[in-house]
Amino acid sequence: MAELSENKTPFHLHHWLPGLLLTIAIAGTAAWLSNQSWLAGAGFGALTLAIILGIVLGNTLYPQMAGACDSGVMLAKQRLLRLGIILYGFRITIQQIADVGLSGVLIDVMVLSSTFLLTCFIGIRLLKMDRETVWLIGAGSSICGAAAVLASEPIVKAAPSKVAVAVATVVLFGTLGIVLYPLLWSLLPTVSAEHFGIFTGSTLHEVAQVVAAGHTMGAEAENTAVIAKMLRVMMLAPFLLMLGSWLKRQRSHNAQQQAIRFPWFALLFIVVALFNSLHLLPANIVSTLNQLANLLLAMAMAALGLTTRFSALKQAGCKPLLLGLVMFGWLILGGGALNVLVQHFMA
C-alpha cells in the first residue's frame, strides 16, 4: 500500500473523516483497555495498546478500508502526532527539576546521551542495521519509549514498519523492566528509596512502566522515579532539535536526500512546558489538555499500527530485538553505574 505524503494529504473533511473516526475508535478502545486492572497492572498504557490494536486491524480488516481511510489515517500519524507532542508539554513544569536536584538532571543527561550513542554504535557499526531503525530504537530507549519513537519519526522519516519495529522493541523490554526493577530493589536493601527511584526513572523506558514499577516499590520510590522520568521526557525537545540538525548536515552531502524540515513542534513543546511552569491555567483545564494529548498520541499510534504489515516486521529479523536486549542490559548496568557515580560525587 502506497503511503500518502504529508504534503499530498487532501484538505477536505470528507476525505479525513473515515480515517480519523477509525483512529479515534481504536484510541478509545485502547484507553478503555488501559483502565482495566489486569492490563494496567502489567504496565500496558493506551499508546502501547493502540498500536497493538492498529497492527491487528492493519493486517486483517484495514486493507479493505484503506481507500476510504488512508487520508485520515495519515493525518493522524503525521500532523496530529505533532500536536500531541506539543500538548505533552502540559505534563511538565520547570519546578520539577528542583525536586530531584542537579544530580538527577545530570544522571538523566548522561544516561540519555550514552544510551543513544551506544545504540548507534552497536546497531550501525556492529550489527549493520539500517540507520533509521537504530535511531528510533535509540530515541525510545534513551528518553520515553514509544512516545519518543513517534516524536522522532517525522525527523528520521522512517517507513511505518521501521517505526513499528522500534516501538515493539522498546515496549517489550520496558515491560520486562516492570517486573525486574522491583526484584532488583528487593536485592539491594542498602540503597535508599529516593536513589533507587531516580535510577528507575532515569533508565526505564515508558512513563507508564516507571509508574507501575515505582508503585510496587512504595510511595517515595514512585515519586522520585516519576520526577526523574519526567525530566527525561523534558529532554525530548532539545534531543529532537539536535538530532534534526545533525541529520540535516549528514544528508546535505547527498543531493538525492531531501533536507529535513525544522522541527517547530519541538520548540513549541518547550514553550508549552515553560508556560505550564507558571501555573496560569486551572487544574481542570490542564487535565483536559493532558487527556487531549493522550487521545492525539493514541490516534497516532493507531494510525502507525494500521500502516504496518507483518511481512515488513518479519523482514526486519532478530537484529532489532538483539539491539533492544543489549540496550536494556546497558540501561540497568551502565545506567546503574552512572547513578552511583553521580550520586557519590555530588552527595
UniProtKB/TrEMBL annotation:
<feature type="transmembrane region" description="Helical">
    <location>
        <begin position="226"/>
        <end position="247"/>
    </location>
</feature>
<dbReference type="InterPro" id="IPR004630">
    <property type="entry name" value="UPF0324_YeiH-like"/>
</dbReference>
<feature type="transmembrane region" description="Helical">
    <location>
        <begin position="322"/>
        <end position="342"/>
    </location>
</feature>
<feature type="transmembrane region" description="Helical">
    <location>
        <begin position="163"/>
        <end position="184"/>
    </location>
</feature>
<keyword id="KW-0472">Membrane</keyword>
<feature type="transmembrane region" description="Helical">
    <location>
        <begin position="292"/>
        <end position="310"/>
    </location>
</feature>
<dbReference type="Pfam" id="PF03601">
    <property type="entry name" value="Cons_hypoth698"/>
</dbReference>
<feature type="transmembrane region" description="Helical">
    <location>
        <begin position="12"/>
        <end position="32"/>
    </location>
</feature>
<feature type="transmembrane region" description="Helical">
    <location>
        <begin position="38"/>
        <end position="59"/>
    </location>
</feature>
<dbReference type="InterPro" id="IPR018383">
    <property type="entry name" value="UPF0324_pro"/>
</dbReference>
<keyword id="KW-0812">Transmembrane</keyword>
<feature type="transmembrane region" description="Helical">
    <location>
        <begin position="104"/>
        <end position="127"/>
    </location>
</feature>
<dbReference type="GO" id="GO:0005886">
    <property type="term" value="C:plasma membrane"/>
</dbReference>
<feature type="transmembrane region" description="Helical">
    <location>
        <begin position="259"/>
        <end position="280"/>
    </location>
</feature>
<comment type="similarity">
    <text>Belongs to the UPF0324 family.</text>
</comment>
<keyword id="KW-1133">Transmembrane helix</keyword>
<feature type="transmembrane region" description="Helical">
    <location>
        <begin position="134"/>
        <end position="151"/>
    </location>
</feature>
<protein>
    <submittedName>
        <fullName>YeiH family putative sulfate export transporter</fullName>
    </submittedName>
</protein>
<keyword id="KW-1003">Cell membrane</keyword>
